[in-house]
Design goal:
Layout (H helix, E strand, L loop, with lengths): L15 E8 L12 E8 L2 E5 L2 E5 L4 E4 L5 E5 L12 E8 L4 H5 L6 H9 L4 E2 L5 H13 L2 H15 L6 E2 L11 H17 L6 H7 L4 H12 L3 H18 L6 H7 L5 H12 L3 H12 L1
Antiparallel strand pairs: 1-7, 2-5, 2-7, 3-4, 3-6, 5-8, 8-9
Helix pairs in contact: 3-4, 6-7
């Protein structure tokens, strides 16, 4: 049986590590590492969990994930189907600020970059308007070697630190304090929820997955996510509902509600508006106006 680790080591062969993934799906477990990472989703769709954030990701997205920030790029279920023809392609740059590169940030010319790297601890999403420029600079880093790679990476960081419209992925910096066993437990909780969100998951069921009593589970989950489990489950369900609406894979909004795990349309409409800021009908109307 494959052993799942929460903390994953990244090769220390170079101060700047570049990894290109072409796989059937993204790595399927919540994990962390000491390195700050910049990931460009060249091809692939699914759900990103990063700290307290959970949202859809798609081709073209670029994310900065902080050092030791627990995260999971969960590919959509159809990537795991038998005989699936889908695959993913991603380019990631890793840098360990505790290593040799961290000393470069102490130079006065790098003061702006050092301040920027300090705010990446909660995770950031690069605005769509900057994706083309950042992806081109990431390719320059990938193709270069030795000192030239280092120079291109510094140029990339200088560009990143000038962007003002980042979306923060998490509202807490406490994730790095999570232990190895707690990380594995949170992975089990996330995996079970995302596999069974269409079902009526009881508090006892999910507490059993975490090997805790229901009362202890409620405290544990709130401590590590700053939200209740019901709130998280609803986010998963609305996330999947939005995917169905955008993919136009539904007969009616009522059908989307039931397929996403809600027992009735009234609750679905209320929760949908609370999470997205608008009712599902308006969400659908605005989406259709954008694509037509």
């Amino acid at each position: 049986m494959k052993v799942v680790h929460f903390t994953i080591p990244v090769s220390q062969e170079h101060s700047i590590m570049v990894q290109e993934d072409k796989l059937p799906h993204f790595y399927n477990h919540l994990h962390r590492h000491n390195e700050t990472q910049l990931t460009w989703i060249i091809k692939g769709e699914g759900t990103l969990i990063a700290g307290t954030c959970m949202q859809r990701f798609q081709s073209g997205d670029i994310y900065i994930l902080g050092a030791n920030q627990p995260h999971l790029f969960k590919s959509d279920p159809d990537y795991f189907e038998k005989n699936s023809q889908k695959d993913i392609h991603a380019l990631t740059v890793f840098v360990d600020l505790r290593g040799p590169f961290g000393k470069i940030l102490d130079l006065p010319e790098m003061n702006n970059v050092k301040k920027f790297m300090d705010i990446t601890c909660t995770g950031l999403q690069v605005p769509a308007s900057y994706q083309q420029d950042i992806s081109k600079k990431m390719l320059l880093v990938k193709e270069a070697r030795n000192g030239i790679r280092l120079a291109f990476f510094i140029q990339l960081l200088q560009t990143l630190c000038r962007i003002k419209q980042y979306k923060s992925l998490s509202n807490t910096q406490t994730e790095s304090a999570i232990t190895e066993s707690e990380g594995l437990r949170m992975n089990d909780i996330y995996q079970y929820t995302m596999a069974h969100y269409t079902e009526n998951i009881t508090l006892k069921q999910i507490a059993d997955v975490a090997h805790l009593t229901p009362q202890a589970f409620c405290r544990y989950f709130k401590k590590h996510t700053l939200k209740t489990y019901v709130a998280f489950l609803n986010e998963v369900r609305i996330n999947e509902a939005c995917k169905k609406i955008v993919g136009e894979h539904f007969d009616s909004l009522a059908a989307v509600a039931y397929q996403s795990g809600f027992n009735n349309a009234v609750t679905f409409n209320r929760v949908f508006k609370k999470i997205t800021g608008q009712p599902p009908k308006k969400f659908l109307t605005e989406y259709m106006q954008k694509v037509n």
